[in-house]
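[Structure tokenization] protein backbone as discrete codes
[Encoding] learned vocabulary of local backbone shapes
[Protein] chain in single-letter code, fold in tokens
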Amino acid sequence: MGFTTILLFIFAAADAKVLKLTNKNFEQKTQASRGEYSGYWVVSFCNQSPRCQKLQGIMGDLSNELKRTSKGLVFANVDTENPINANLLERFGIHDTPTLIFIEQAHFAKYSSRTFSKSKVKTFAQTHAHGETFKRVPKPKDIIEETIGPVLEAFAGFVFFWPVQFLMGLGLAEMPARILWFGVLYVSGKTFEETVYNKHCSKKRKKKIKKSRIKEEDDDEEEIDERPKKRGGKETKKKKGKDKRESKKKK
């Protein structure tokens, strides 16, 4: 048995302690979104790059080293190159590799340091990601969303974009764009013209309103002045009629 085979055997034994998670068994194993206790999970998102391979070796060493001293710690790995795990990458916002997260009671925290040394990863795991910002674990997509969602997106793309492709084939795809552009310019010009016109007319309207109010007030004052006169006239006629009757009675 050569030296290289011994090293491969050691790394294989170390990797055996690191669980492999996929989109299918992630929620079942970790209970991440439910918050039910299934251990304290240290999950790495890695590919086949040298940095990722180094981190996986550190994870295997720590899983054996902390198995007795730190109970409840579970080390796992997610393969970012596997297309099945695309939903997991989107769910936890994984954009770079390697990325290390800590999951505890429906919350997770990302490893903020860019150096993945054994001592730093060990303190990250033992202190339960102390000093890092925790976020709520997003809920996984339903089976219906995962299966029907892509079909609906493809159908919507076919329904809404095939006319554009048809027009492009005929060389008429530029015409709707030009019509739309001129329509936007026409509407914006109309709105600008209306605003200017309204500002200009608002001054004239204010003046007219003031004049009409002044006329109304003058008309009201004239009516108030005329009412007593009319009443007085009626009273004088009544008095004259009474005087004539009294004079006739005396005679």
